[in-house]
Every structure is written in C-alpha cells, then in structure tokens.
Amino acid sequence: MALLCACGSTPPPQPTKPAQADPTQMVAAVRAAAGNGEGELAVQPLRDPMVEDLRQQAVKLEQQKQYADAAAALDKALAITPDDPAVLQERAEAALLLKDFAGAEQRARRAYEIGAKVGPLCRRHWATVRAVRYAANDGAGAAEANKQLAACKVAALERF
C-alpha cells in the first residue's frame, strides 16, 4: 500500500537557481541606480591628476571590453589613493564585469564605509551589493541592500 502512495505522489519541485545575470547588465543597472543626482546632496572630492588619467583610461578600456586591463588601471589609481570611494566603486564595477562577485561586494561595502553615505555614489555602492546578493540567490541580502540604497537619497540644502 505504501508503495502505491509513493508512486502516485509527485516529488516536490526542486528549487532551481536562476540564470546568472549578465555582468554588463549588472553594471548598467548599478550605474542607472545612481540617477542624475539633480536636487540632492552629492560630495565631489578634488582629484589627483594622475588618478583622473587612470580613471579615464579605465573607461576607455571598459568600452573596448578589455575588463581586466580596466581593472588594472583602477588598481594603479587605488595604489595612489587607496581610500577614494569613487575609485573603489569603479573597481567594484570592474570586478562585476570580471565576475568577481565577492570582490565587487567587498569593494562596494568598503567604498560606502569611507564615503559620504549619501548621493548617487552611495546608491551605486548599494546597487552593487544588491546585484551580488541577487546573483547569490540571497533575497534577504538584496532586500537589505535595496533599503540602504533608498536611504542614500538626501535633498540638497536650501540656499538663502
């Protein structure tokens, strides 16, 4: 009798892992999450000219789909200014393109820790964490990152 019951029931469906997100789509979503920053507080530090050159070089290399070389240029920039949240975030995005999700999350979280915690760059930090958490099937982690992302929007001070 037990054998008949076992044959007549279907096993519960096994959870399936969703297809891995395309890294270029992940980076596009991270950058889109920043928005345009209009009407809100955003901190823009002065840049070392050598660091700025390396950042521009990384942009060009990324456009040419030379992701490892872009990451290397950003690593050189970080050797000059290791605590620059914008460069750390750009390096986190380069890590996404290289499918180094752990490195991307670690850099984005570090950039948030040392950064202004408001504005478009802050949203990019948390959008990176959210993307990595989604890729890891961590819905709770993605939801928490989304909550943090929303908290990054702070209106600019009124000037009298």
Please summarize what this structure is.
With 160 residues, the chain is mostly helical. It contains 8 helices and no strands.
Describe the overall structure.
The longest helix has 17 residues. The protein is 64% helix and 0% strand. By secondary structure, the chain is mainly α. It has a single domain, classed as Serine Threonine Protein Phosphatase 5, Tetratricopeptide repeat (Alpha Horseshoe).
List keywords for this structure.
160 residues, mainly alpha, Serine Threonine Protein Phosphatase 5, Tetratricopeptide repeat, 8 helices, 64% helix, globular, disordered N terminus
CATH superfamily: Tetratricopeptide repeat domain
Can you give the mean pLDDT? Answer: 85
For this entry, what is the oligomeric state of its chains? single chain
Report the major sheet.
none
Please outline the helices and strands.
Layout: H1 2-8, H2 23-33, H3 49-63, H4 67-80, H5 85-97, H6 101-114, H7 119-135, H8 139-150
